[in-house]
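Aggregate trends can hide what the representation actually does to any particular protein. For completeness, the protein is quoted in full, as a sequence line and a line of structure tokens.
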Amino acid sequence: MSGEKIQAVLDCQDDLIKAIDTQNATAIIHASEALAGAVAALRNSDDWPRDPLTADRLRNALRENRAAAMRINLLAHWTRRKIDRLSELRSQRGPQNPYKTL
């Protein structure tokens, strides 16, 4: 397992976390696609790194991956709450009559 592949995953995860924190949808999509490619390249490696520094970097990549997943879940939860609240507000308004009653 090469250190470059691990570093690529770490860099992509950092980019994804920054995109999520800024709530930039375009950046989230690009960072997610880049991360998927970096992870696919890492998956092609058959063995766990023997070098302690490389193994630590891989463990760090996995922790960062969990941090990104938590942010995505939180963002999805906030979005769902906003949609539900807007739906509630719409139903409370009732139908609007553009004509005045006499």
In short: The radius of gyration is 22 Å.
